[in-house]
Task: inverse folding
């Protein structure tokens, strides 16, 4: 497949995070979890996705090779 643009990556990431946030709120998860998701969303909106993050892995942007 073709590489995604940073904007597309950001959109995918925000989509995923917002779904998680919605789920966390719906199921009354820990406020700490909710805050943490909110911070991730803010960070992605500002800086885009850090390719070293777990988020990038979840989105399938990077695959960790098990050495």
Result:
């Amino acid at each position: 497949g073709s590489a995604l643009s940073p904007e597309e990556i950001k959109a995918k990431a925000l989509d995923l995070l917002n779904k998680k946030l919605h789920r966390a709120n719906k199921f009354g998860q820990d406020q700490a979890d909710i805050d943490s998701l909110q911070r991730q969303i803010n960070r992605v909106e500002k800086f885009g996705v850090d390719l070293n993050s777990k988020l990038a892995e979840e989105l399938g942007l990077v695959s960790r090779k098990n050495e």
In short: Helices lie at 6-26, 31-47, 54-58. The mean pLDDT is 90. The CA atoms of residues 33 and 43 lie 15 Å apart.
